Recover the amino acids of this structure.
């Protein structure tokens, strides 16, 4: 038996890694990957809570499935936008995508 | 081993009838657009409007079916959802009208525009009815994904791409926070149903789970504050408003605000109502900086779309006051506010489209100089709608602000209302500046009138009519909002 706290700590660590990646990375594709890491952290959390609560309705696991599906759709739209930007500017560095300020 | 009998949750299709109509219509339009390359935009627009009408009828019929929950408590069917669904449908219809002219002028792809708009509408309507955090997430992503693509609709233009890019990155970042909040709330309360959360909170939390619930609630608020563009989660708003085509911006401004506040109101008034003394101070701080920041920064803008973006941030602050009041008047006031604001903002962006030229040029303040001589109707329509946004009587915006502020006074939040009044005064300045430019200043160069179609004029006329009628006679919508707000106070 593993205490649920450990799993929660792993998930919190992964989430923080994702947040750091989004804030510190300059490449759009790596930012997208960091967002995926954040979503994975959420999934771990949900499944761990599902086991901890012994939820007979399996809400946590069902929610995790929904998140996996939506994340796939989201990354599809995201990459499409990144490719659109790459075609015009031949760069996906977020610092250089800054026509509009304030 | 004996098997338990299969329990099938109650299915009530009335609860999702408007959404079903919308999805069917959107699919139909996409198929029509793909199958018949030459299908005229006018036919597609008529189809979209017919679908929206059908969805509105379904929503009105669903209102008569009583209130309750469908699909095992994941979707609510009540006046609150019905009211907001009707508001969303109406603003989508006005956006279809404004968008039709845009499609004609820019030779944009009509089926995609209308299909995405209708799918986004579906997601927003589902947000208004969602009674389970899983449903909230699905609805949120449905309309967000559609809006990301719509923001990038002028895909050859750098500013449109950039707006969509920023919207997408910050949007999915915020969604991840929202989801982490949902996961923690689930761990703390053992359910994702709002009703279930309310029950488990009123029974008292088990020791050790408070930290999960409180951090979950905080992260939920971050995700929703992003959607309604509350400071400091507003960064995307000005860029997306400026980059997206004007009709899309109007729809996005109205729809995502209604959808975001729908969930905020339902979650805080039902699910987390037990913790009212805990979330009130957070929202008061959010509302204060949102109002003040939005109003002050809008003064410095020279682009009309950006100015309205900051004005929409300020309006989020005013709407948050209705949420903070946490009484029935606050709820009905916020509903009325959302109803009148949606029409005004969609109508305003129809005018911005009509004043602009091909390629979305001429959206600077100077381009509005002497608009009265060029396009008198558009000038009058914009002037009335800006006066309503400023909250000057007798317009719809005045009654909306009055209701919300009175609710906050009833709840004892007098300092907050004073701050709101002061930032409204600051806001009057930049609205009036546009009006002065349009009516009192001579234009510098041209007298040519841009080639706008008729339907954007119609869209502006709808906005104008709603503002004027609600300004003089707000009672019917106010009563409807009061009726709608009853269900969350049982």
């Amino acid at each position: 038996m593993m205490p649920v706290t450990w799993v929660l700590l792993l998930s919190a660590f992964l989430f923080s890694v994702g947040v750091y990646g989004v804030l510190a990375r300059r490449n759009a594709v790596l930012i997208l990957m960091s967002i995926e890491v954040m979503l994975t952290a959420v999934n771990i959390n949900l499944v761990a809570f599902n086991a901890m609560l012994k939820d007979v309705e399996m809400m946590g696991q069902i929610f995790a499935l929904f998140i996996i599906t939506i994340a796939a759709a989201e990354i599809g739209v995201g990459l499409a936008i990144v490719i659109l930007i790459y075609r015009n500017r031949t760069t996906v560095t977020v610092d250089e995508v800054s026509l509009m300020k304030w | 081993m004996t098997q338990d009998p299969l329990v099938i949750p109650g299915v009530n299709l009335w609860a999702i009838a408007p959404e079903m109509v919308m999805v069917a219509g959107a699919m139909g339009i996409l198929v029509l657009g793909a199958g018949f390359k030459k299908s005229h935009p006018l036919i597609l627009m008529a189809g979209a409007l017919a679908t929206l009408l059908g969805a509105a009828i379904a929503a009105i019929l669903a209102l008569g079916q009583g209130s309750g929950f469908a699909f095992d408590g994941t979707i609510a069917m009540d006046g609150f959802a019905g009211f907001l669904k009707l508001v969303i449908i109406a603003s989508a219809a006005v956006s279809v009208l404004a968008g039709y002219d845009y499609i004609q002028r820019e030779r944009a792809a009509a089926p995609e525009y209308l299909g995405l708009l209708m799918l986004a509408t579906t997601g927003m309507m589902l947000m208004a009815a969602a009674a389970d955090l899983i449903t909230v997430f699905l609805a949120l992503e449905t309309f967000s994904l559609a809006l990301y693509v719509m923001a990038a609709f002028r895909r050859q233009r750098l500013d449109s791409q950039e707006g969509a890019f920023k919207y997408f990155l910050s949007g999915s970042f915020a969604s991840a926070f929202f989801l982490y909040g949902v996961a923690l709330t689930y761990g703390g309360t053992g359910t994702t149903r709002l009703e279930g959360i309310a029950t488990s909170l009123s029974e008292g939390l088990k020791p050790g789970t408070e930290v999960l619930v409180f951090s979950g609630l905080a992260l939920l608020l971050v995700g929703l504050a992003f959607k309604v563009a509350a400071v400091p989660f507003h960064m995307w708003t000005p860029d997306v408003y400026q980059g997206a085509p004007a009709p899309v911006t109007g729809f996005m401004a109205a729809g995502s605000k209604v959808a975001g506040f729908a969930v905020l109101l339902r979650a805080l008034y039902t699910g987390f109502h037990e913790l009212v003394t805990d979330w009130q101070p957070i929202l008061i701080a959010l509302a204060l900086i949102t109002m003040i920041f939005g109003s002050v920064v809008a003064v410095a803008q020279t682009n009309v779309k950006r100015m309205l973006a900051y004005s929409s941030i300020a309006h989020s602050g005013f709407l948050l006051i209705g949420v903070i009041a946490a009484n029935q008047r606050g709820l009905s006031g916020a509903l009325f506010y959302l109803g009148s604001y949606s029409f005004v903002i969609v109508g305003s962006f129809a005018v911005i489209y009509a004043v602009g030229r091909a390629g979305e040029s001429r959206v600077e303040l100077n381009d509005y100089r002497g608009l009265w001589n060029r396009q008198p109707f558009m000038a009058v329509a914009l002037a009335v709608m800006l006066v309503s946004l400023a909250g000057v009587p007798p317009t719809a915006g005045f009654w909306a602000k009055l209701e919300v502020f009175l609710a906050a006074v009833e709840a004892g939040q007098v300092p907050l209302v004073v701050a709101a009044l002061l930032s409204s005064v600051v806001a009057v300045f930049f609205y009036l500046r546009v009006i002065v430019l349009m009516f009192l200043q001579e234009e510098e160069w041209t007298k040519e009138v841009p080639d706008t179609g008729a339907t954007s004029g119609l869209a502006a006329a709808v906005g104008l009519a709603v503002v004027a009628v609600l300004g003089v006679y707000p009672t019917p919508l106010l009563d409807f909002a009061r009726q709608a707000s009853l269900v969350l106070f049982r």
Notes: Chain A has one domain: 4-89. The radius of gyration of chain A is 17 Å.
